[in-house]
Amino acid sequence: MHAAPVLLGIKTANLLSFRKSCFEDFDALLASYTTCFRCKGISVFRVSEGEEYVLLLFYRPGVLSKELRQPEAMKLLEAYGYRREDTLAELLEHLRLRMRLRKTFPHEIGLFLGYPPEDVAGFIEHKGRDYAFSGYWKVYANEERTRALFDRYTDCSQHFCSELERGRRFEELVRAV
């Protein structure tokens, strides 16, 4: 449900946390979906992993790379030690390192999730307060446009789940972009 907007191609990325002990063999299960993800243009990155939990970033590499290269996004990333010349893989590794060192979500993670740079900058500047509204993230700019986008995400998630409940196969629902 939470990754549906990425799986259907209307969102760049989503973070999902999995409790590994809830699965007989988590790594094998994830591997069984890799071919489907890869052929649909979705990559999976282990942002953080412990004994019990794993935090995975499901993302569309081409779109994410383009979004992170926007001048506003790159300016924010550079403030946290990311380098303009880094590849997407290097940017993701730096994010993983910052997660490990901080032991919490670094503010710039919103950029990796496709949040608008102005909302990430607003969150940092206002320390998570004084936002226009909150939904999938805290919104500081373009309120009307973002409300419509949040509605699309919600509709997408509901559609994806209802199609699964009707018996459609997961692989049939995931879209290439």
Fold blueprint:
Blueprint: H1 4-7, E1 13-19, H2 26-39, E2 43-49, E3 53-59, H3 61-68, H4 71-78, H5 88-102, H6 109-112, H7 117-126, E4 133-134, E5 138-139, H8 143-165, H9 170-173
Antiparallel strand pairs: 1-3, 2-3, 4-5
Key descriptive features of the protein:
177 residues; alpha+beta; two-stranded antiparallel sheet
How would you sum up this structure in a few lines?
The chain has about 180 residues and is of the alpha+beta class. The chain has nine helices and five strands; from the N terminus they run H-E-H-E-E-H-H-H-H-H-E-E-H-H. A hairpin with a 3-residue loop joins strand 4 and strand 5.
Molecular structure report:
By secondary structure, this protein is of the alpha+beta class. It has nine helices and five strands; from the N terminus they run H-E-H-E-E-H-H-H-H-H-E-E-H-H. The strands form two sheets. It has a three-stranded antiparallel beta sheet with strand order 1-3-2. Strands 4-5 form a two-stranded antiparallel sheet. Strand 4 and strand 5 (138-139) form a beta hairpin. It starts with a helix and ends with a helix. The mean pLDDT is 95.
Low-confidence stretches: none
**How are the strands ordered across the major sheet?**
1-3-2
Report the biggest beta sheet as strand number plus sense, adding barrel if it closes. 3 strands, antiparallel
Overall form? globular
Tell me how many strands there are.
Answer: 5
Global Rg? 17 Å
Helix share bin: 40-55%
Succession of helices and strands: HEHEEHHHHHEEHH
Distance between the termini: 19 Å
Overall structural class, as computed from helix and strand content, comes to alpha+beta
Number of distinct helices: 9
Mean pLDDT: 95
Fraction of residues in β-strands: 5-15%
